[in-house]
Design brief:
- The complex is a heterodimer.
- Chain A is mostly helical.
- Helices cover about 70% and strands about 0% of the residues of chain A.
- Chain A contains 14 helices and two strands, in the order αββααααααααααααα.
- The relative contact order of chain A is 0.12.
- By secondary structure, chain B is mainly α.
- Chain B folds into two domains: about 1-70, no CATH class; about 75-285, MetI-like (MetI-like fold, Orthogonal Bundle).
- Chain B has 16 helices and no strands.
- In chain B, helix 2 (about 20-50) packs across helix 15 (about 255-275), helix 4 packs across helix 15 (about 255-275) and helix 5 packs antiparallel against helix 12 (about 205-220).
- Chain B is globular, with a radius of gyration of 24 Å.
- The chains are: A mainly alpha, B mainly alpha.
- Chains A and B meet through helix 1, helix 3, helix 4, helix 5 and helix 6 of A and helix 1, helix 2, helix 5, helix 6 and helix 7 of B.
């Protein structure tokens, strides 16, 4: 890539190869000195813990390390209804948040990509929630959702509609719709609780700006000749978008799908502040369950097993994305 | 943005988004979305300036009957917010400094030095991005609190964040752009690699360093779960945990709670508005997710 930094000008050509080799190894030593802090820290707090998590999960481990129990934590996990329920909630969370964030993010970015007056101000407005703390913003939304005196219910009252329980509502949203039409759905069709959907709405609000900014960068990377050619050929706005812009945005879509999914599975602060995982555990995602198992019940080994399974699922999902969607991603 | 203009010109010709009705519709949609997006901040601010009784009034008032600035004082008085702010500032300062030093050194090696095993080490660094935070949470808790014995300290709150692979990649990109001639000239003048890094590379890379610094400041300021695990009391805890604790204590005193939330959000908003381009640049380049 680059020539060695330590070449000494004017040295005889005779000694060149030997001197070069010596300089190379000297530079290697210097380079590892520069890398040492990062290497030590990454090993100590990233690589080692990933393996250590598996080790911990093989033990009965409360306040201190107790006995080795092999894969028992995993056996218990697979048969634990709570875990599967939480996994379902996490999946709902991802399924509700990511498509909306991507669709809205793309729409807003596409509109902002035009030479509109005030586009800088729009971008600032959409991006603002992303930089605010999810704890403080979660409290603000909890206040908006409040059953008595909360703004959303006041709006419903003003519209002559019945109030909703929002964050206190454990019933599924499909079931609530069915009830409104005097029908009743079987339990498995009830859908995610209104509490979870309410938290999702807050999360979409919080992360949307990130999607807008990434899509704006993606749109900026598309060579303008491609648009121009398409429009010259008589393609309409929608056709140009559908057959030119969208395919060329596939790397951006792919990136957002993966990072968005991983990020959504890590959502914690806003759930902690807004519902604490309730009501009736209806917004208790896997990370919330891990937190409760580990922090509130001090079951370190069992919590570690959960974290390990979740990680395996994330890696599997990423791999599946790469091999299913990734193959259709167009790079130019 | 001449490209966008050209596109819009063509679009206008064939009556797409760039046509007059199209522009008006775009503005209408974007404006509505922006208002909805900013509205929670407005409501936070307005509530923070009402009396607790007025905040709960039905129907609600859109603007306070009389501005209650006293809410801010009483919020500050009812919890040790001063201490929380101080703790957060200290942890954030250490984290930003540490990340900048560690990342600059590593990025310099990747960008400017030729060494044995470079590709392998680079791939290894990349691989850390595949390790999700959930799995390292519990082991890191054991390592930091039990093995290092740092439970309820400042260093426990930032030590695990010091090596940022995102920061290393971003700085490396920047360091790669520094002209070779500059390095040759420096070496000619008897400048060692470290002096070259410190006296030439670092000053030339100010925008990238500011970006990395700001993103890490933001992360430290908004940190919640990790400090919650490794700290115990108000003496060490950062502002986000303080705010969360205050929310339980405040109960239905929503005016004061919103005053406290405003104070927690305000510094980041101020920093963002001043340094917006660095944030956008950094997030675009790394896709860093808060």
């Amino acid at each position: 890539m680059t020539a060695p930094t330590m070449t000494i000008p004017g040295r005889a050509a005779l000694a060149m190869t030997a001197a070069r080799r010596r300089a190379y190894w000297r530079e290697t030593g210097v380079a590892y000195l520069y890398l040492a802090p990062a290497l030590v820290l990454l090993t100590a707090f990233n690589f080692f813990p990933a393996a250590f998590a598996f080790y911990i999960s093989l033990f009965k481990w409360g306040l201190v390390q107790e006995e080795f129990i092999g894969l028992q934590n995993y056996v218990r996990l697979v048969t634990n209804e709570e875990f599967w329920q939480s996994l379902g909630i996490s999946v709902w969370y991802v399924v509700l948040a990511i498509p909306v964030e991507m669709a809205l993010g793309l729409l807003i970015a596409y509109l902002l990509f035009q030479p509109l007056r005030g586009r800088g101000a729009y971008r600032t407005a959409y991006f603002l929630p992303y930089i605010t703390s999810t704890v403080a913003a979660g409290l603000v939304w909890r206040w908006l959702y409040k059953r008595e005196g909360g703004l959303l219910n006041e709006v419903l009252i003003a519209l002559g509609l019945p109030k909703l329980m929002w964050l206190d509502e454990p019933e599924g949203v499909f079931q609530l719709m069915a009830h409104a039409a005097d029908a009743n759905l079987p339990a498995w069709l009830a859908g995610p609780s209104l509490a979870l959907v309410s938290v999702c709405v807050m999360s979409i609000w919080h992360y949307l700006g990130f999607y807008v900014v990434i899509y704006l960068a993606g749109l900026g990377n598309i060579p303008r000749e491609t648009y121009e050619a398409a429009r010259m050929d008589g393609a309409g706005e929608w056709q140009a978008f559908r057959y030119v812009t969208l395919p060329l945005l596939s790397p951006t879509n792919f990136f957002l799908l993966i990072t968005g999914t991983i990020g959504a599975l890590q959502a914690f602060n806003q759930i902690y502040v807004m519902t604490g995982g309730g009501p009736l555990d209806s917004s208790r995602t896997v990370l919330m369950l891990i937190f409760k198992t580990f922090y509130q019940q001090t079951r370190v080994g069992y919590g570690s097993a959960m974290a390990f399974v979740l990680t395996a699922l994330i890696l599997l999902l990423t791999w599946a994305n790469f091999s299913l969607v990734g193959r259709r991603v167009t790079y130019d | 943005m001449t490209g966008a203009k050209a596109v819009a010109g063509i679009a206008r010709a064939s009556a797409g988004l760039g046509s007059r009705p199209g522009v008006i519709a775009s503005h209408a949609f974007l404006l509505l979305g922006a208002v909805l997006t900013v509205f929670p901040f407005y409501w936070m601010l307005v509530t923070s300036l009402k009396t607790n009784t007025e905040a709960m009034a039905s129907p609600p008032t859109m603007w306070p009957l009389a501005l209650q600035w006293g809410n801010y004082a009483s919020a500050l008085a009812s919890a040790p917010f001063g201490r929380y702010f101080l703790n957060t500032l200290l942890v954030a300062t250490c984290q930003v400094t540490g990340v900048l030093v560690v990342a600059s050194l590593a990025a310099f090696a990747f960008a400017r030095l030729r060494f044995f095993g470079k590709e392998v080490v680079f791939t290894v660094f990349l691989a850390t991005l595949m390790i999700p935070g959930e799995v390292t949470l519990i082991p890191n808790f054991v390592i930091v609190t039990k093995w290092l014995g740092w439970y309820d300290t400042y260093q426990a709150q930032f030590v695990t964040s010091l090596a940022s692979v995102f920061a290393i990649f971003l700085l490396r990109q920047f360091f790669l752009q520094i002209p070779r001639d500059l390095e040759d000239a420096a070496v000619m003048d008897g400048c060692g690699t470290f002096r070259f890094l410190w006296a030439i590379v670092v000053p030339l890379s100010r925008p990238a360093l500011i970006t990395v610094g700001l993103l890490n400041f933001l992360a430290a300021w908004n940190a919640f779960l990790w400090p919650l695990l490794v700290t115990r009391g108000a003496a060490m805890r950062p502002i986000q945990i303080g705010l969360s604790a205050f929310s339980t204590e405040a109960g239905t005193r929503y005016a004061e709670l919103m005053a406290a939330s405003t104070m927690v959000i305000l510094p980041t908003v101020a920093v963002f508005l001043v340094a917006q381009r660095y944030f956008i640049e950094g997030i675009t380049r790394t896709g860093l997710k808060g």
